[in-house]
Backbone:
């Protein structure tokens, strides 16, 4: 499938802008609805499957200006209701349409400190863009204003000019707050609490900061330099960053409160414990959790063959089990690591897949082979314990289950087998039980997530939590929303003292 080049997309946008002329601000709703949505420029599939550079290359200025003109500028702003951190979407998009990119960035940063990240990886199509009046008027959610792409555009515009501002910090209060985990929830809490003048220390188990944004999301979707720059902003604010610190091992949670003088703690340790299928053969050599596979590739840079400190075995035929964004990331990473064939196996149909539509399309374009209504029954190996093939069952859809999706029902006697040398299990993660095991009184759910109220307060006073450790495996922006609410609670608690 051939796609227009970046230059071709830009030329079309320039021509349409010239047609609109100076009438942009006074366009009627019907005229805005007639403006075509702007496709995202991207690397050619045959090229990008052989590199780790970012696939989507970002809007040109002309595209951003034109896409922003599509916004109907609704008074009630339904899009904001779909945003977990309640960005003032109408005003930032209007600022882009007016060519005032700095004002657009400033508007976003009133409620979100990570626009370059959220603009890339958040599922806007099921959040803000799902509520967009334009998409509903056109009866096509894919025709909504491209809010995420516009957010990314102005965030990149600011970064490329070297004008990223450091949030102002109030005078020191003498209060200390510890943040455990440097994923999206933890970074938001660190920034929001530090702004109020409290001393903040972030404890990270890995040797680098960024959490799932660093180890879980591939370079071709989220360049690590962007995450690094966000962490640098925290440093510039005076946040202390401590790597290689495993709370529950290096130091117990309650010791931080009772012995080290912290006035409040936020737990944002994510959902890093992979789920397995508990089928025959999962202990064979060549079976990975998607978590391990992506961590080796992303954090340890296994794609740098011959240079990586933690290499990864070369695979020829790969099976990826699952249908979410992590499964797409693993499948597309396997291609870039040199696999000849990558097969994605999912027990429902594409319609029920939780992965973003864009990620599914990118995976298909790059050559990932999709096998719907199938699932692994067992993994087979040779006398050396190496994976040789996978046996699958066929499924059909039954009645909807608790998730609202039709339940997959196995077709008896439909077993079949095909050759693979690597299997990547991408069926979700749960929370690491370490903090719970080492912290008496910290209540968890039956799924192992921490119990916390709407303000992030756990069952232990002064201990707050948010992100995947509370939600289960969710999204960057949902984690940020929880972090924002927990930070507000911490600031309110400390202000009252």
Residues:
């Amino acid at each position: 499938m051939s796609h227009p080049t970046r230059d071709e997309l830009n030329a079309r946008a320039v021509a349409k802008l010239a047609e609109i002329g100076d009438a942009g601000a006074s366009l009627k709703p019907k005229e805005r609805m007639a403006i075509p949505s702007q496709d995202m420029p991207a690397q050619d599939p045959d090229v990008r499957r052989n590199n780790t550079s970012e696939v989507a290359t970002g809007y040109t200025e002309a595209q951003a200006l034109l896409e922003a003109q599509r916004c109907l500028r609704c008074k009630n702003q339904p899009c904001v209701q779909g945003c977990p951190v309640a960005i003032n979407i109408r005003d930032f998009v209007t600022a882009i349409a007016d060519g005032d990119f700095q004002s657009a960035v400033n508007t976003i940063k009133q409620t979100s400190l990570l626009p370059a990240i959220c603009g890339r990886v958040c599922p806007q199509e099921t959040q803000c863009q799902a509520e967009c009046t334009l998409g509903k008027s056109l009866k096509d959610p894919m025709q909504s204003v491209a809010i995420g792409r516009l957010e990314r555009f102005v965030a990149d515009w600011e970064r490329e000019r070297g004008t990223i501002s450091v949030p102002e910090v109030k005078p020191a209060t003498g209060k200390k707050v510890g943040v455990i985990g440097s994923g999206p929830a933890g970074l938001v809490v660190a920034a929001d609490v530090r702004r109020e003048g409290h001393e903040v220390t972030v404890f990270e188990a890995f040797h680098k900061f960024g959490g799932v944004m660093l180890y879980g999301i591939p370079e071709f979707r989220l360049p690590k330099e962007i995450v690094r720059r966000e962490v640098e902003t925290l440093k510039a604010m005076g946040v202390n960053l401590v790597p290689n610190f495993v709370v529950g091992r290096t130091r117990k949670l309650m010791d931080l409160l009772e012995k080290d003088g912290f006035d409040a703690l936020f737990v944002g340790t994510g959902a890093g414990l992979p789920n397995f299928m508990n089928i025959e053969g999962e202990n064979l050599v060549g079976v990975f959790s998607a978590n391990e596979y992506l961590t080796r590739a992303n954090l340890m840079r296994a794609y740098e063959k011959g240079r990586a400190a933690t290499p990864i075995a070369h695979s020829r035929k790969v099976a990826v089990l699952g249908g979410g964004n992590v499964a797409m990331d693993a499948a597309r990473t396997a291609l870039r690591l040199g696999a000849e064939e990558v097969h994605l196996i999912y027990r429902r149909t594409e319609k029920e897949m939780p992965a973003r539509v864009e990620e599914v399309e990118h995976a298909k374009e790059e050559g990932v082979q999709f096998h719907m209504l199938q699932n692994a029954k067992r993994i087979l190996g040779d006398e050396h314990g190496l994976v040789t093939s996978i046996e699958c069952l066929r499924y059909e859809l039954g009645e909807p289950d608790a998730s609202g999706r039709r339940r997959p029902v196995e077709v008896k006697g439909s077993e079949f087998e095909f050759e693979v040398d690597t299997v990547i299990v991408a069926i979700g993660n749960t929370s690491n039980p370490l903090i719970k095991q080492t912290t008496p009184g910290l209540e968890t759910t039956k799924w192992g997530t921490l119990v916390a109220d709407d303000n992030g307060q756990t069952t232990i006073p002064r201990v707050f939590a948010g992100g995947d450790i509370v939600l289960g495996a969710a999204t960057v922006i949902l984690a940020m929303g929880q972090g924002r609410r927990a930070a507000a609670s911490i600031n309110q608690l400390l202000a009252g003292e």
Summary: The chain has a mean pLDDT of 94. The CA atoms of residues 46 and 366 lie 7 Å apart. DSSP finds 20 helices and 16 strands in the chain. The chain has three domains: 6-160, 176-272+430-495, 276-427.
